[in-house]
Amino acid sequence: MKFTVNRSYFINNLNSVLKATSSRSTIPILEGIKMVLTDEGLVMTGSNTDISIELLVKASDDLQIASTGEIVVRAHLFSDIVRKLPGKDFTFDVQEGNQIKITSEHAEYMINGLDPSAYPRLPEISDDQSFAISAKTLRELITQTVFAVATDNSRPTLTGVSFTFSQKQIKAVATDSHRLSQRVVGVDNGPSEDLSLIIPGKNLQELAQLIADADEDLKVFLGDSQVRFDFDNLSFYTRLLEGAYPNVDRLLPATSSTSVQFHVSDLLSALSRASLVTHVNRTNAVQMEIDAENNRVNLTGNSPDLGKVEETVENLGIEGKSLTISFNPDYMSAALRASVTDIVVINFTEALRPFTVVPNDNEIDFIQLITPIRTF
Amino acid sequence: MKFTVNRSYFINNLNSVLKATSSRSTIPILEGIKMVLTDEGLVMTGSNTDISIELLVKASDDLQIASTGEIVVRAHLFSDIVRKLPGKDFTFDVQEGNQIKITSEHAEYMINGLDPSAYPRLPEISDDQSFAISAKTLRELITQTVFAVATDNSRPTLTGVSFTFSQKQIKAVATDSHRLSQRVVGVDNGPSEDLSLIIPGKNLQELAQLIADADEDLKVFLGDSQVRFDFDNLSFYTRLLEGAYPNVDRLLPATSSTSVQFHVSDLLSALSRASLVTHVNRTNAVQMEIDAENNRVNLTGNSPDLGKVEETVENLGIEGKSLTISFNPDYMSAALRASVTDIVVINFTEALRPFTVVPNDNEIDFIQLITPIRTF
């Protein structure tokens, strides 16, 4: 196995595969990247058992193939070496006993490769169940929901985002049981029958990063316990979470008694000031006092140790009756940061009932739910 | 005590004082900044027992004084608050019971201040022993030596840089007993009698950062166990290290049998490649093979676990006899990064004797010494 490749072009591809390799794995071979060189090109595979990435670098002027073969190379070391090589190109040459000779200009490395037959196989996922989704849509669905997944493992299904794909729309929901984020988007060519799957939140974050700038469609392939996303020259595998996702529709309140509109930026900065003092408290609650009569909203953060902050937050209109409510400022801030409009509507019912944060545009089907905190 | 101040102007000053405050001190009052407001202006003091900084913000249009007084405010919280306030200005108003009211536009904080009489006094340093030094010169002396101080505490004096100030020159030396860096610069107005002091390395790093862009002279005041640097509106206090600094002059070799010139950048990149494999070894040694006959320098890094790297390093001339020597690549890299010239001369005597790295310009009195590693 021997090839010569343009270094910066190779680094770009290597960076994608590195996302799936862990530097310390309990399975030592997974600290490596499997490299399979055929006449078609170089296939690099990385896996951390949670996600796997397989990437094809096609033979071209930038990748010149001298002889085919396969090897596993220590990901971390290899990446460091490639980054520091002096030349524009480098040559990768596997010699006897899995020794790899890497040369670039006057520098020559001879590093120990690992046996490629010891590298585990990736799951085979048939083409039976597949459909396309635009990269932009998927990225939005992820970033607008993934922050709300549970971070503790007491209810494993809640650590993932629940997706329901149907012919005309995709619904994504995440909740940690204190707050919830649900986004629905319309699509043209969803799968012919409804499909539901729960994908671990942190795997989705990796996927969102990988497709950051992609503009085209991704192809989604469904396996039994895995799902694969194909785009560009790359396949992204993630395990699925088993179990039934709770039916959250019944949690969403149908009516409200108080509605306030805010500029996202106004409320965000007031919350960041209030949380400076509330973050030291175990309860971490800010109080919002909505005075419908005087059209005034006051925000208060309080900590017996440090002190207190109070301010009037600019509002763009109050409907309904006055109300005082306490909530976690971090949940509210996360909801606001996920907002797709500059102005949001917050709908309350009672001081101890969950309230919703929605865009001020009815066309956008995006609802966030936050459970208040009892402070008395 | 009450003042109104321009926020961004205040933050710049606050940042300097924060360098001396620790967020978790065993002396709780030192987590605070002492603020003393007189008609002249606001004096802010921060201290972490190792260094102290006292800074005067003069009364001006940017700092309007309503009433004088003093208070201690929690540094970390106060800094966070000031950064997040909504307005261009803010008002700081001390009320009964050390309560501090901070207002800016529609936001109002009420935080608990601390008793200013509980704040420790800074050492008094008389003006008897003082002299001036240019900020640029001091900064250079620090950055060219401080990296070589000892990081373990087995010989406390070696954790500092030894300075000898005399009328015509300043000498700075640091050594951790494996390598040494000594820089001598000429000055016009040194102190009339020779002064020697050892200043802790990490305190010097803080000082170098503080004077980063300063162009004027610093005034140095010597106390018994402390030294104070005055510049701009700021006084920087650091404790001194007690004890005698070893006489290092006798360590510097007078002759050499092999001299090689290198471009700093060539040798640095070759070392960074070699250390990729040597860093995993306990000995962390690279081998340099100087072949005087063929005018060739080879650098080799080797690790039984990972592999080996070997390369020819461009040299600008070899004088004397051939030699093979092993050394810690990190010490060599640090020496090269401190270099003030693009080309250095490395002078060797024997494979197991310390060697020196000096500028290729005889006018510059800067010598670095590195002890080789025995690899057989």
Automatic annotation (TrEMBL), chains A, B:
Keyword check for Nucleotidyltransferase: yes
Chief subcellular location: cytoplasm
One example of a Gene Ontology biological process annotation: DNA strand elongation involved in DNA replication
DNA polymerase III beta sliding clamp central domain sequence ranges: 133-247
CDD domains per the UniProt record, alphabetical: beta_clamp
InterPro entries: DNA_clamp_sf, DNA_polIII_beta, DNA_polIII_beta_C, DNA_polIII_beta_cen, DNA_polIII_beta_N
Family the entry assigns: Belongs to the beta sliding clamp family.
Name recorded for this polypeptide: Beta sliding clamp
Organism: Lactobacillus equicursoris 66c
